[in-house]
Every structure is written in C-alpha cells, then in structure tokens.
Amino acid sequence: MTTLDDRLLAAHANDDRAALVALYKQAADAADTTDAACFFLTHAYVFALELGHQDVPSLHARLLEHGRA
Fold first, then answer.
1. Within 13 Å and on the Cβ side, how many CA atoms surround 64?
2. Among 4, 50, 53, 64, which residue's beta carbon has the most beta carbons within 10 A?
3. Global model pTM greater than 0.85
4. What would the pLDDT profile of 24-36 be if each residue is shown by its tens digit?
C-alpha cells in the first residue's frame, strides 16, 4: 500500500495535475490543523485553476471559510 505522500510524489513526477487536485484535497481533509489544511487546499486550488477543474469554486469557498483566499 502506498501512502498519500508517495501518491503525491508520483503525481508530481508524472505531472498528473488532476490527481494532484484530488490528492491535495485528501491531504487537506486529513490535516490536523487549519493551517495545514489550508496549505494543502491552496495547492489543490492552484492546480485546479491551471486545469479549469470543476472543483475550483468549492476549493475557493473552503479557503474563504478560513479567511485564506
């Protein structure tokens, strides 16, 4: 079984931005602090913006909830 970190590294190595959006969202959901969650959400949001991904509005809303957008 691979860890989330391993999957993130593989997605970066393969430039799989759609996977990066999903994996950074997963990391945000698993984060133990708001700061950590927002760090990961920001990464997901940037990759989503680059792709025109359908999750852009929801990621932006999550960041706004924490005063981070």
1. 6
2. 53
3. yes
4. 999 999 999 999 9
